[in-house]
């Protein structure tokens, strides 16, 4: 049973965490390239946020939403 847990440890430490070890070593050389994936996600988030705000502006300009005070029964 002990060998089973050592196999799980070996899998995680030597195989699955290898990309993180590579990023840690790369960060010492160049911070920007080590965080390249983070920058990609930030750019995707900003594009999605901009698209969503433009869509909300479009629906607001069309006046499609019922903004009356009694639009919901609990108000």
List descriptors.
77% helix, 75 residues, mainly alpha, 0% strand, elongated
Quick structural summary:
This protein has 75 residues and is mainly α. It contains four helices and no strands.
Walk me through the structure.
- With 75 residues, the protein is mostly helical.
- The chain is 77% helix and 0% strand.
- It is built from four helices and no strands.
- The chain has helices at 2-16, 18-29, 31-34, 36-62.
- It is elongated, with a radius of gyration of 25 Å.
- The protein starts with a helix and ends in a 13-residue tail after the last helix.
- The relative contact order is 0.05.
List the helices and strands and how they pair.
Elements: H1 2-16, H2 18-29, H3 31-34, H4 36-62
Order of helices and strands: HHHH
Total helical elements? 4
| Unreliable parts | none
In which range does the helix fraction lie? over 70%
> What structural category do the secondary elements indicate?
mainly alpha
Report how far apart the termini are.
62 Å
**Multimerization state:** single chain
- What is the approximate shape? elongated
Largest sheet: none
Number of DSSP-assigned strands = 0
SS strand fraction: under 5%
Mean pLDDT: 88
Q: Could you tell me the radius of gyration in angstroms?
A: 25 Å
């Amino acid at each position: 049973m002990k060998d089973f847990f050592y196999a799980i440890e070996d899998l995680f430490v030597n195989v699955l965490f290898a990309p993180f070890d590579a990023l840690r070593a790369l960060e010492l050389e160049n911070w920007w390239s080590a965080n390249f994936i983070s920058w990609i996600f930030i750019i995707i988030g900003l594009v999605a946020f901009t698209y969503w705000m433009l869509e909300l502006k479009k629906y607001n300009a069309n006046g499609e939403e019922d903004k009356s005070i009694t639009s919901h029964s609990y108000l």
